[in-house]
Every structure is written in structure tokens, then in C-alpha cells.
Amino acid sequence: MTENISSRVAIVRTLLNQYSYEYYVLDQPTVPDSEFDQLFLELQQLEEQHPELVDSASPTQRVGSEPSAAFDSIKHRVPMLSLGNAFSQEELQQFYDRIQSGLGVEPNERTHFFCEPKFDGLALSLVYKNGVFSYAATRGDGRSGEDVSTNARTIRSIPLRLRGEALPTWLEVRGEVVMPKAGFDALNARMREQDQKEFANPRNAAAGSMRQLDPKITAKRPLAFYAYAVGPCEGVDIPKTQASVLSWLHDMGFPVSIERRCVEGLQACLDYHTSMLEKREALPYDIDGVVYKVNDHDAQERLGYVSRSPRFAIAYKFPAQEKLTTVAGIECQVGRTGAITPVSRLEPVFVGGVTVTNATLHNFEELARKDVRVGDTVVVRRAGDVIPEVVSVVLDKRPEKAKPYPMPEVCPVCGSDVEKKEGQVVLRCLGGVTCRAQLAESIKHYASRQAMNIDGLGDKLIDVLVERSWIKDVSDLYRLTQNQLASLPRMGELSSANIVKAIEVSSHTSLARFLFGLGIPEVGEATARSLAKHCQDLHVIRESSIDDLQLIPDVGPVVAEHIHQFFSHDKHQALIQHLLDAGVNWPKEEVADESAQPLLGKQFVLTGTLTSMTRQDAKAKLQALGAKVTGSVSAKTTALICGENPGSKHKKALDLAVEIMDEEAFEAWVNSL
Ligand code: 5U1
């Protein structure tokens, strides 16, 4: 009987370990979560009934121990080194030249480098004895670190038992604990709900989570581990190259970066840096550069070490995304829909590759939570194309007289009343287009490339036209004369004539562009296209009930209500009439041919690099067939079209069991429709 139970326990453990490996390491789950959960419960019950069968490497033994009072110190058998840094191409060139001459390589021969992302997390050493997890330590000062074994055990991507037959009797694996971006956002949302202080970035969140004295807290934190090196190893020979070490680690059950590459020579190293910099935003975790290691271990040994870092490796860092600066002022911006956004004016600071002078504070709740004050020293972050934001305030540096910034009681631009609806964070000016700011923003939207596409009518000029009260609503654009424009400072005869011409040319438009340009709340380009295609006539849209509108693809109850409300307002009807009277026109929409739109109602997401066409082309192809192309994978997604080096969308699609199509399959399928 006990023998049967013991063998069942062994089978269930093997299955759970296999499923975890497929999920965390291969990124290819083969069973639904419910199946895993059921087996896990079975194992827990068997171990409860038969405590003699409990084993420290069992999948159930991730969160066990009670909180400890402090972390013990652990001496690393071999010091954990840090990496030298390069911040420019010249510095990387110098590193490369040192390697070539150190190895005595001819200039026409190119050294092989192993390249990887530089994870922005917390370095961790894991020790396995006879294939079973024994302990984990932080890097500390490189010689000894803190014993974080109980916390490391809770990280599901860290194997408690290694896979394979010929395992080392003693093995140290080195790598990084990170908090994936999605997990970080969810954690901060939870912290906010519970009125707890949020983490400034995923690195701090990962480090803070690993330093919890109660492993039950760490267990609830979304942490992941990526292995990148081995330390001391006994009982088997370590493979001879960095690339094969990583494959070996992968086979033993450790997650390793799918972005790892082996390249030859300096130019290929630089290309890798460029490609990772471009990919950075799409990666599921934060990275702050790339790491190059001479691939061959014998060559590594010949190059040796300098004080605390190896000569054979270097980190080529990305431009910093976070910097300190001071807040010179706080101002309010009023947007097209009246939303009032606090914006900090900053002492110029070079961050993430550009000079930043303004950073959004999002809304007044966020401003109050971060308690940003004029004169404060703040951490500013700029990631990729994202608008720069103030991450946090350095309280130690706050000037004594700095005062909290109050929420305005009236619109700071027009003095109208303001409103903050119950349960919403946005503060809104109720002035409508009588508010100069709202008027200027609505004209900028109307003139934008995606709407009426009025060439040469830039934001600054629109501000001036509104300032001078030459434009009180968008239809006044069509009454502007060349003489009027030419009288403005720095406006020549030719440019004023060009603008008047561009306004006239743009008046011959399409119904979709016109609808988008009206700025109906919640009606983006795609919805405007769908409305135009399905109603064909502005009159039909104007007269449609909320129920009728909901029959149109892409229009749900909220959007339908906004559209209906917009056309119910007399002032909007009058504005449309003024625009039609001014000559705005469009050809009649073609009748939507359902047979030419076989993908109507379907939603697709594109990820990764496509080789035979651009993502833009693929999007246009899908849209032409009636599909909607969205930016993120959800349960509503019909399929994910996956190019090379896909980002986090691929994992999300797997998690949600959304169909994934590679480029070849996509092309064949789309051409067959
Ligand atoms: N990807 C990667 N990060 N990283 C950090 N590899 C890597 N190697 C390191 C460090 C400190 O050190 C090696 C010398 C093992």
C-alpha cells in the first residue's frame, strides 16, 4: 500500500516538475493551469497523510518556513564578480581591441562573442547538491552575501530538483531575479489599493521582494529567475563554451534568455546592441544593456581577471532611463475633452537619449500620492517612446518651504467650473469650446494627419489663431484668408497661401476622416472607419438609435451612447452644418461588400519582426479584409500573428490559449481568403 502511495507521489512530482519546466523554461505549457492545480492538490494531500514521504525538493515545498529575524551571511566559494561597463561605441571598440590583442588574434580573424541582455534585477547564486536545491545567496559584497534560500524556493522558475541523468554533485548557478513588467504593474496596483507605498521600478520591487523576512510575502510577488553563468561545479565537466553552458543550464531546468546569440566580431556585437535597444520596450522584463562574453572558455581563462571583474566580458549599457532633476514649476494642461492634467516643468535633464524639460504627473490623485512640489528633486524616467514621467520625490532634498500643489477649483485657462465625477480620477473643465485650451486642442485634432490632414497648419499656428479669436470653432478655418495669415509675425506670402490652399484641398475628404476629426468621445480611427463603411451616409449615423449603432462592428454600448449623445446636441448639429456649408465634402462610401470582408468581427494582434512584409502592410491587409488589428492580446483576440523574436504578447497568447500563426502560415492563409 505505502509502496503504491510512494510511487504515486513520485509520479505526481515528476509530472509537476515537467509541467513547470514546460511553463517557465520552455515557455510552452502543455496542460491547462487547472490540471496542474489538481495534481498539486493531490500531492499536498498525499504528503499531509504521509509526512514520511515529504522531501525538500517536492514542488509543494516552496513556501514552508516561518518568518526569520534576519538573513544569515553566506560566503561564496568563488567570489561573485561584477562586469566592467562600456557606455559608448568607442569604449566597446577599446574592449574589443584588448580582447583581440590579449588573445593574439590577427585583425582579419574575428573573436566569437556570446551576447545576452543585461537583466535589471538582483544577482543571485543558487547551489545544488546532487541535483537538489540546497541554498541561495545574494551577491552582497561579492565575497559573501545574504542567505535568501527560503525566499528563492518560492520562485517557481527556480528548479528545486535538476533535470537529467549525469548531474553535478555540487553546482553553483548564477543569474538574476527580475520582476516582469506585467507583474510589477499588477503588484503596484495592489499596493495602491492597499494604501501601501508603491515600488519605483521593477528592480527595486525584485530586490525588496527577495529581502522579505517572511517567505509568504515573497511567494506572492511575481518574480522570475534567469540563469547566465555557472560557478564552482563538481562531479561533471562544465561545457567548453558560454553558449553550450547556457544550453546545459536550460536542459537542467533553468530559464535562460531567448535573446541569447553567438556572434563574430565587433560590428555584430554593435548590431546586437542596436537590436536589443529597439526591442527593449517589447521585452517582458527590464534590461539596462547587453553583456558580451568571449564564447570560448579556454580563451576566457587566458584573458583572466582585473580586480573584481573578468577581462573576457563587458556590459554595454543603454542610455540611462532615470535621472535626477529639480521641479522648476507645476502647470495645468487642458486637453481636447477638458481633462486637466498637471505637468511638471523640469530643469533640463538628459535621460533615455533625449533632453527632458516636462514630465506628466497624469492626474491630481497621482500628484497628491507622489506629493511632487515645486523645488523638489525628483527621479525622472523616460522609457522608449513613452512620455517622460516623474517616478518619485527625493524627500531628503526637499526645500523647507516647498508646499503641496493644490487641485484647481476652476479651470486654470478659462475660469469655468471644474468637475471630478464619482469614481473617476480625471478633473474636467466644463467650459467646452468656450475654453481656449479645449478649442485649440479640438482644432489640432481636426487638422491632424489622421483626420482632415491639413498640411502646414501646425500646433503653434493654431494656438495663435485661437489666441487672436480668429477661430471660434473649426468651421472658421475655412474663412481664413491669405492676407489675414500673411499679417502674422514670421508668416510669408507663400506659406500663408500654401496653408489656405491646404485647408481647401483637405475639405475634399472621406466620411471616416471627417467623423474622426469631429472628436466624438471614444471614436478612434478604426471606429470612425467602421461607422463610415457600415452607415455610408452621415445622415444615417445622425439618425441612428443607440441600439442601431451597436449593430456596427467595433461599436459597443458605451461608444454607441457617446455617438448618439454627440449628434443629439444642437451645437454639434450646427457645427456640422457650418462645415458642410463651408464646402467640406466626401464621395459616397462604397457599399460594404460582406463577401470582400471575410474577417469582419475578427481581431488580430501582430508581434515580432515579419520578414516578407512590414507590420504596417500586414495590418493594412487584415483591415482590408474587415478585421480589427489591436495592440494587445486578450480573450477576444482571434489570432496572434507572430514574426521573429516575438515579445511578451506571445506568452500572453499561450496563457490565454489564443491561436498563434507564424508568418508563413499567415501569408498562406490570408492569400487563400
Ligand atoms: N546576462 C548577464 N548578466 N550578467 C551579470 N551575464 C552576466 N554575467 C555576469 C554578471 C555580473 O558576470 C559574469 C562574470 C558571470
Map the helices and strands.
Layout (H helix, E strand, L loop, with lengths): L1 H24 L7 H17 L23 E3 L9 E2 L2 H14 L9 E8 L2 E8 L2 E7 L5 E3 L2 H5 L16 E9 L2 H13 L8 H9 L4 H5 L4 E11 L7 H11 L8 E4 H15 L7 E8 L2 H7 L1 E2 L2 E2 L2 E5 L4 E13 L4 E13 L2 E7 L3 H7 L6 E5 L7 E5 L24 E3 L6 E3 L6 H12 L11 H9 L14 H5 L6 H14 L4 H7 L7 H11 L2 H6 L2 H4 L7 H12 L1 H12 L21 E5 L7 H10 L3 E3 L8 E4 L5 H8 L3 E4 H10 L1
Parallel strand pairs: 2-13, 21-22, 21-23, 23-24
Antiparallel strand pairs: 1-6, 3-9, 3-10, 4-5, 4-7, 7-8, 10-13, 11-12, 14-15, 14-17, 15-16, 15-20, 17-18, 19-20
Helix pairs in contact: 1-2, 12-13, 16-17
The structure holds ligand 5U1.
Describe what this molecule looks like in 3D:
- There is one protein chain.
- With 673 residues, the chain is of the alpha+beta class.
- It has 6 domains: 2-53, Orthogonal Bundle (Helix Hairpins), CATH 1.10.287.610; 84-317, DNA ligase/mRNA capping enzyme (D-amino Acid Aminotransferase, Chain A, domain 1, 2-Layer Sandwich), CATH 3.30.470.30; 321-419, Nucleic acid-binding proteins (OB fold (Dihydrolipoamide Acetyltransferase, E2P), Beta Barrel), CATH 2.40.50.140; 432-506, DNA polymerase, domain 1 (Orthogonal Bundle), CATH 1.10.150.20; 511-581, DNA polymerase, domain 1 (Orthogonal Bundle), CATH 1.10.150.20; 594-672, 3-Layer(aba) Sandwich (Rossmann fold), CATH 3.40.50.10190.
- Helices cover 37% and strands 20% of the residues.
- It has 24 helices and 24 strands.
- Strands 14, 15, 16, 17, 18, 19 and 20 form a 7-stranded antiparallel β-sheet that branches.
- Helix 1 packs antiparallel against helix 2 (33-49) and helix 12 (436-447) packs across helix 13 (459-467).
- The longest helix has 24 residues, at 2-25.
- The radius of gyration is 30 Å and the shape is globular.
- It binds ligand 5U1.
- Residues 81-83, 116, 118, 123, 174, 228-229, 291, 310, 313 line the site of ligand 5U1.
